[in-house]
């Protein structure tokens, strides 16, 4: 039996973030500000895609101010600046920024539940700026909501 897909609603925006200093920055609030329609979504998904190769996104603890500092320090130990890289077109922080971006990733998929991101109590979304002067950053934010709830959950365990 083939069932027709449930109707969905989509919202997509390109968001320009103000320049951030090198380091890890909690940006959860910017997600809500960019797409306030999240508040109207009961069940959905939000996808964030950072359109850059020298910054990244991740989820981590947002309660302690030490976490972003320690996270940035750890990334600097994993991919230190130095003359051991071939690619240094834009300076000594160029290739280490690309390595950090690949390690952390350029996208996140987050659940939306009852008008809020489905993050845990201590979780926040981070923009990790890996360049000394990265400038403003763009992310593409896509929000999807199922307009009808399944009346019956499919039995998956037989």
From TrEMBL:
SUPFAM superfamilies the record matches: YjbQ-like
Pfam families assigned: YjbQ (PF01894)
Superkingdom of this protein's organism: Eukaryota
PROSITE patterns: UPF0047
Gene3D superfamilies referenced in this protein's UniProt entry, alphabetically: YjbQ-like
InterPro entries: UPF0047_YjbQ-like, YjbQ-like_sf
NCBIfam families from the UniProt entry: TIGR00149_YjbQ
Family to which the UniProt record says this protein belongs: Belongs to the UPF0047 family.
Full protein name: Secondary thiamine-phosphate synthase enzyme
């Amino acid at each position: 039996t083939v069932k027709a897909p449930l109707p969905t609603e989509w919202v997509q925006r390109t968001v320009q973030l103000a320049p951030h200093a090198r380091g890890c920055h909690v940006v959860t609030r910017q997600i809500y500000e960019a797409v306030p329609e999240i508040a109207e979504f009961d069940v959905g998904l939000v996808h964030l895609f950072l359109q850059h190769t020298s910054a990244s996104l991740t989820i981590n603890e947002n309660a302690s101010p030490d976490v972003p500092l320690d996270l940035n320090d750890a990334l600097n130990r994993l991919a230190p600046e130095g003359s051991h890289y071939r690619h240094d077109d834009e300076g000594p922080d160029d290739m280490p920024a690309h390595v950090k971006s690949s390690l952390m990733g350029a996208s996140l998929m987050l659940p939306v539940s009852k008008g809020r991101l489905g993050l845990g109590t201590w979780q926040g979304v981070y923009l990790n700026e890996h360049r000394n002067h990265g400038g403003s950053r763009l992310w593409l934010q896509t929000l999807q909501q199922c307009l009808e709830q399944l009346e019956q959950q499919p039995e998956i365990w037989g």
